[in-house]
Design goal:
The chain is α+β, with helices and mostly antiparallel strands. The chain has helices at about 15, 20-40; strands at about 5-10, 45-60, 65-75, 85-90, 90-100. Strands 1-5-4-3-2 form a five-stranded antiparallel β-sheet.
């Protein structure tokens, strides 16, 4: 597991509440496809984003946006082992992001 902290800047509660899950998933799929080119150069297998392990949800009490995506090696069978990328954003004056793989 890798845990990463990132100071992301200011994120308004309204912005976090209104994130579009389909657009976010599309963006991650496109980014993953682009990074697969670099993975190939490094001799690392390509991966694909399968879908949501946990669809984005905003918790107004804690000001957190949370989501998780499932992934696997590109072209692997449906019963192949999967990875999960879990993300949480805490919004407010100093928004932060934590991702785990």
């Amino acid at each position: 597991m890798t845990v990463r902290y990132e100071a992301s800047g200011y994120v308004k509660d309204d912005d976090a509440r209104e994130w579009n899950a389909d657009e976010l998933l599309k963006s991650y799929r496109e980014g993953t496809a682009a990074s697969n080119e670099e993975r190939a150069k490094l001799g690392v297998p390509a991966i694909e984003i399968i879908g949501w392990a946990e669809k984005p949800a905003y918790d107004t009490a804690s000001h957190r946006l949370v989501w998780a995506m499932s992934s696997r090696d590109k072209g692997a069978s449906a019963d192949a082992p999967q990875g999960v990328n879990y993300n949480t954003y805490a919004s407010g004056a100093r928004a932060t992001s934590v991702s785990t793989w």
